[in-house]
Amino acid sequence: MSVQFGSVVFDDQQTAATISLDKKVYSKPAALRACYWFGRDLYCHIDERDEFLEVTVRLRVSSPTLDQPKVRKIDEWLPEIFDALLDSQLRVEIQAETAGVRELIIAKAFAESGVLEDPPPGTFADPVTRSDAKAGDLIRINTKSCD
Amino acid sequence: MARSFLPVSDFAPAKSGYHLLPFRFHRLDEQTEVLVNECGEFLMVPLGTAEKVVRRKLSVIDDIYPTLKAKHFIYDDYSSPLLDVLASKYRTKFDFIHGSTKLHIFVVTLRCDHSCHYCQVSRQTVNKDEFDMPQDVAAAAVNLMLQSPSPHLTLELQGGEPLLAFDTIKYIVSLAKPGAARLGKEMDIVITSNLAFLTDEILDYCKRERIKLSTSLDGPEFIHNANRPRPGGNSYRVAIDGIKRARRALGANQVAALMTTTQLSLQHPVEIIDEYVRQSCHTIFLRPISPYGFAIKSSHRTGYQMEAFLDFYRTGLRHIFEINKKGYNLVEIYTKILLQKILTPDGTGYVDLQSPSGAGLNVLVYNYDGDVYATDESRMLAEMGDYTFRLGSVRTHSRAQIFTSPAFVSLLEAACNQSLPGCSDCAFQPYCGADPVYHHATQRDTIGHRATSGFCRRNMSVIEDLMSLLNNGDKTIQDILWAWVTDRNLAELRTSLPQ
Fold first, then answer.
1. Taking the C-alpha atoms of B344, B345, B348 and B352 in order, what is their torsion angle to the nearest 10 degrees?
2. From B54, B84, B422, residue closest to A108, measured CB to CB
3. Cβ of B88 and A109 within 8 Å?
4. Which residues contact B10 (CB under 8 A, 6 or more apart)?
5. B38 to chain A: which residues are within 8 Å by CB?
6. pLDDT band of B372, cuts 50, 70, 90
7. Which domains does chain A have, with CATH numbers?
8. pTM of the shown model
9. Does ipTM come in above 0.90?
10. Are the Cβ atoms of A105 and B22 closer than 8 angstroms?
11. Which of B50, B81, B451 is facing A38, going by the closest CB pair?
12. I want to staple A144 with a disulfide (CB 3.0 to 4.6 A). Which of A69, A127, B389, B495 is the partner?
């Protein structure tokens, strides 16, 4: 018989747990990224069911061995997993919101190395000068006027 | 009449609110998380701050609001995102790419008198001349090295034991130095030797040619002799004698010692560090064994988990702090490299902590037989029959062919931690590196699996430790860390601080 605890269902042996995540709150990339970091100790499986993502985590080693004399029970992993899910969701949102700016920063950083096919968009509103730059330098910043 | 200012709320962001700039975050402990922006600038903040920022729960009257703006985590209608400043900082972090390959390692011979357990070279007996670098190979390798666009080159001569092929060393230097001068390049030359064959003639030569010496010192006599067996069982005495003679002849700062950690070393961090102090060394590099060459074959002697190394490192670092507190300046090099990446705008020349990976881009290895490898570790793999990272040969390949070889291209695909799984959203990405050769050697995959990676475990742990020390460590320890970053000792740092 399985035990239910909130949105988590444990198996009979307490070696696996299935966590239901509302897709309005957690995205699939966030769940995948969170699970990635538990790959050393847990098997992870993600399924989609209606409005939910179902994340099943199972202990890789469920009883003590010489290499691993102490084994954490599956429920002891849950606080870390919940934290990781939250953090991953935030990271996904930050990346989605800032991807364009990030690309622009990197494009501007290397714009004058001659490796970009197209110049980056935008203007140099804050000119930066490096007076010792030479014509052949890979990394170089030119003075730009603010007009 | 006193002039009154508008209330703070009048300066609140417009209804559009504030906008995010790219940043990452990491939980440091139960109370603290660290936010790191795209250029590696960081903020220690209460746990939950990242969520507040992302969910727009932050108000202009929060104390942290102006700091987040000033450090480029957010911007609003009153601030420009200052993209060019960020771009400039970003470019500075990546300045190590400039000029391409700087470190050129020549394996002048595979011959060696030592039979170290962890040796990364398939050593040959001292009499087998066929394992020396022939002159035509040496000349072609020098030619290839000089084609590097870098205005500053480092030529490292190693083996085996390179002093067993001293004539080859002289031949290479006779070509490299004038060649570099002709091209207007500066050049540092280092011989990496166990010093067993160091003669006065060699020392005179090194002094004349301004060649530095680098050697191994694994700790006190019982550790060094056990780690580095040689006929007579006296490798420690030979190394100490060589270090003293070399310092007298060349100057103390021209001779460096490096240690390698073995299973035996793990039990003795304090004794090893004390030996470095006893030998008047002012730097020590607590580094784990590379998982290559004989280090894997002899894993029953040297094999250990990264956790054991981290215990060793932490105990060692605490002891080093105590030594510094007593007034002796001793710098742990790995800590210093990471601190420079964390606390200064600069990147690092240390090839093992670069992204794009330094393999090939910042270091090339010319083997005695003319084969060119991306790193010294790539050559170790080849000695074990794995030629994955052999980029070509100085006999048959041009520089362009080497840098467009399938081996190099495949290396590049896993060379940027910005796009590696696990690394791409890691807050410590700007401080860390990518090491496709390590991950190929340990996980048979150049991209690697971060959750089980020793490289990730080591760097994540050490950076977390350093962040915690910077956040709430002992003030004296924080001063020691700042002194290391600014190349001063503790007394000099404190003199420079405002009273």
1. 90
2. B84
3. yes
4. none
5. 102, 105
6. very high
7. 8-60+70-97 (3.30.1360.10), 99-140 (no CATH)
8. 0.89
9. no
10. yes
11. B451
12. A127
